[in-house]
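Quick log. Single chain, no ligands specified.
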Amino acid sequence: MKILKIMRYKITAESITPLHIGTGNFLSPFSNLLKEEKINDESRIVIKNTDYVTNEDPEFIKEFINSNERIFVPGSTIKGAVKTAYLYDFLTDFYGKKLLIEWLKEIDNILPKKNTTVDYNRKKKINREMSKSYNKGFEKKIFGYSGSFKLWNNLKFTDSNIIPDGSTDIYELRRFFLNTGHDGIPTFVEAIHPKKEFIFKLNYEKYNPKYSGFKQIGLRLDQIFTSIENIKKLINNFSKKLI
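-> predicted structure:
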């Protein structure tokens, strides 16, 4: 498929809240965010900038993604965040709302009727049918998927620059349960401070939408991603709603 033009952007983003991107690994006890103290010949680990103290190794503190201990924001994470912002923007207009209503009706036909007993195998089947409905129906219409061709893949994001040392701290997270009014067990994560800037690059490969079979979606992507002002508006509007 012929590329008409490639739009190239260098974007500076700023974290609004503490930002954690995990690896599945835990922070080393030798991290500069931790310190060991001895009181009456007993060692304990103190998490800097918190009141938390433990006598155990800090195997519960989730580390921030890094390369040779240098932290960065992965391009895949940035793309996922922009995709979520695009989805929100899409579903707030008339065409998006119409698609959402149609999809919810389809899901309603998949879900069991009220007061119906559902066994384990039936639950698995329901989950598979819902996933299929989203991936091959709803998502396809929003992001322009057709077989191996995906219009959304015209967007290419790089990893961010290396974020300077001293940009992270340990933050305590608690999940609040609205149905009970209680919060859950605290989780500790390494996170970038609020108001920290990082830089990434975005390329948008502009195709002629009539060749893709997704003219309406192609035109929408063009409208947003051929203008740096529209890109900033897309991301900032969603961030403000989220916060």
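The longest strand covers residues 3-14.
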